[in-house]
Amino acid sequence: MKDLLRTADLSRADVDLLLATAADFAKDPLKASSALAHRTVAIYMTKPSTRTRLSSETAVAHLGGTPIFIRGDELQLGRGETIADTARIISGYASALIIRTFAQSDVDELGANATIPVINALTDDDHPTQLLADWLTIQEKFGSNVSGRKFVYCGDGNNMSHAWLTMGAIMGAHVVAATPEGKWAPNADVVARAQEIARETGATIEISHDARAAAKDASVLYTDVWMSMGDPEAERAEKTKVLKPFAVTSDLMNLATSDAIFMHCLPAHRGEEVSADVIDGPRSVVWREALHRRTTIQSLLYHLVRGEIKGR
Asked: SUPFAM superfamilies annotated for this entry (predicted)?
């Protein structure tokens, strides 16, 4: 597999390999410090970023490479050059391309035309690099055997809910997306694909519209911001009202297991999708989770450049 364009592209064997290497990089960030020596990695972002930018640039540097950060207004794409032509040009200069943007179709087109690995570091549809970081954090807490455990996402049925369901299916886990009904529920095609993968792996995929029922006996409660980049501001009042019952508060955490953890892909809005006492409390692992954005992107670059990710 040349690229990581979607979470669903990964096999369980791929994820196990990536997480094992990422765990090694967590212990020794410079373990493969010459893997990208004298090579560059382009990092193209049309959305603002804290964790993705810092983790990507640091990961490249720890592998001995040079990161080249490119903003959305710095390429000729804005003046009519095609995505396909841009992919060919970048392929001549860099050894990999990390992209964070809006449309999944743009990432797909880059992957189809680039001769180097393309890594989806977030689109409006998916967030595979975040889920690798999430599952490394989960395995540090609970180990690789997740039988008998339930992993719950609460909130907007957005790209994070899509990636959460898909990765849970790949990992053979019992995963739940607790979201409102209607237009803020997860995409039906994504749910169907997760269920298809689950039939192969033995996972349980569940969609709930009751946060309290979903949270009962959960090992993880996960959430994301209610207003994502690109969401219409005119929908804020309605969306906030509909999502309020899905906020992760201490009352909701108390329904989970005694060893349950709280996770969030960040940035967080305390008092909206999560209460301050939860995200800043002893059950929160959000800072370790954020650290693993670097370790897992480092692992992805290491294995994709070497052609060691096989895909489904």
From this structure: Aspartate/ornithine carbamoyltransferase
The active-site residue, picked from 14, 53, 126, 130, is 130
**Residue 149, pLDDT score:** 98
Q: Of residues 100, 193, 283, 294, which has the active-site annotation?
A: 100
Asked if the structure places residue 158 within a domain, the reply is: yes
Residue 77, pLDDT > 90, answer no
β-strand pairing of 261-264 with 150-154: unpaired
Residues 6+ apart with CB under 8 A from 103: 123, 124
Active site residue 76: no
293 part of the active site: yes
Whether residue 154 lies in the annotated active site: no
- CB-based burial, 188-199: b 16+ in 10 Å, e otherwise: eebbebbbebbe
Is 156 a known active-site residue? no
Same domain, 109 and 28: yes
pLDDT value of position 169: 98
Q: Which domain covers residue 260, as residue numbers? A: 139-285
* Helix 159-170 with 188-201: angle, nearest 10 deg: 10
- 303 included as an active-site residue: no
Tell me which of 127, 193, 283, 294 is the catalytic residue. Answer: 127
225, part of any domain:
yes
Q: Which of 174, 193, 264, 293 is catalytic?
A: 293
Say yes or no to pLDDT of 78 above 90.
no
**0.90 cut: is pTM over it?**
yes
For 212-270, the pLDDT digits (tens) are 999 999 999 999 999 987 788 999 999 999 999 999 999 999 999 999 999 999 999 99
CATH of the domain at 98: 3.40.50.1370
**272 and 297 share one domain:** no
Q: Tell me if residue 193 is catalytic.
A: no
Catalytic pick among 224, 283, 292, 298: 224
Tell me the CA distances in angstroms from 36 to 25, 66, 84, 293, 299, one per residue in order: 15, 8, 25, 19, 12
Which among 265, 283, 294, 298 is annotated as catalytic? Answer: 265
- Give domain status of residue 132, yes or no: no
